[in-house]
Amino acid sequence: MNKRGEMLTGLVIAVFLVLVLSPILYNFAVGNARSVPDLKPPPGGEKQCVESKEWMRGNHMQLLFDWRETVVREGNRTYRASDGKEYNMSLTSECLSCHTNKDEFCDQCHDYLKVKPYCWDCHIVPPKENA
Ligand code: HEC
Ligand code: HEC
Ligand code: HEC
Predict the structure, then answer these.
(1) 125 lines ligand 2 (CB under 6 A)
(2) Which ligand is in closest contact with the Cα of 90?
């Protein structure tokens, strides 16, 4: 190959690399960084969840299903947490009384992970006070 041919090949490879890599680089710089959930703590300033944060992260679904079973089947509405504190087993009146920012908290995480709880077909989302 002559000099000119080498340069042309180099140029073609360079353009190809830029085209292939740019969406990846773009995502790395902008897209992904923006869509990773930046979870907002409860606006009321509460510091502690029903159970530990790590436990809640992996088990809140099961906890809610257990709460529903206990309330609907047994009529018992009091949950005693592992630290002895008592909570009202209610999606709206308990979870969302602290996590009043549902769209910036629950929804943000679920949207990111493509989970769609159907609970809100029936359960009320309290209106935002400090929107
Ligand atoms: C008394 C206020 C309060 C109540 C009630 C409450 N939470 Fe929380 N929750 C918090 C706080 C504060 C944190 C952050 C804890 C931390 O940073 O250690 C949290 C953390 C979490 C997390 C983990 C978030 C993460 O960063 O991984 C999930 C999930 C969660 N809560 C879901 C729920 C659900 C579901 C309910 C109802 C069953 C509930 N919470 C009830 C205050 C509350
Ligand atoms: C840290 C991220 C995160 C936060 C914050 C979070 N969730 Fe979830 N949630 C998940 C994940 C992940 C799943 C799916 C788990 C699975 O499919 O095994 C899930 C599933 C659920 C489910 C079960 C849905 C189904 O149909 O199986 C319910 C109910 C639920 N979340 C309620 C809540 C509520 C209410 C809040 C806010 C108070 C909340 N979650 C906050 C990550 C989160
Ligand atoms: C078809 C309507 C409907 C859907 C959908 C639904 N629920 Fe319920 N849920 C009810 C009714 C009705 C009660 C009984 C209300 C009561 O006795 O306070 C209830 C009670 C509960 C309770 C205990 C009481 C309270 O105030 O929260 C929990 C916890 C609960 N549901 C969680 C869930 C979760 C989590 C989902 C989604 C995975 C869900 N529900 C979806 C209708 C529904």
Answers:
(1) no
(2) 3
CA distance 63 to 29: 37
Per-residue burial over 96-108, b if 16 or more Cβ lie within 10 Å, else e, is: bebbbbbebbbbb
Distance 86 CA to ligand 3 centre (A): 19
pLDDT at res. 34: 47
Residue type, 11: L
Rounded distance from Cα 84 to ligand 2 centre (Å): 24
Ranges of residues in the chain with a pLDDT under 70 are 1, 13, 15-36, 129-131
> CB atoms < 10 A from the CB of 89, how many?
21
* Pocket-forming residues, ligand 3, beta carbon under 6 Å: 64, 67-68, 71-72, 89-93, 117-119, 121-123
Structure-block tokens of residue 50: 């029903």
CB 86, CB 78: distance < 8 Å:
yes
pLDDT digits (tens, 9 = 90+) for 79-91: 999 999 999 999 9
Q: In whole angstroms, what is the distance from residue 24 CA to residue 107 CA? A: 26
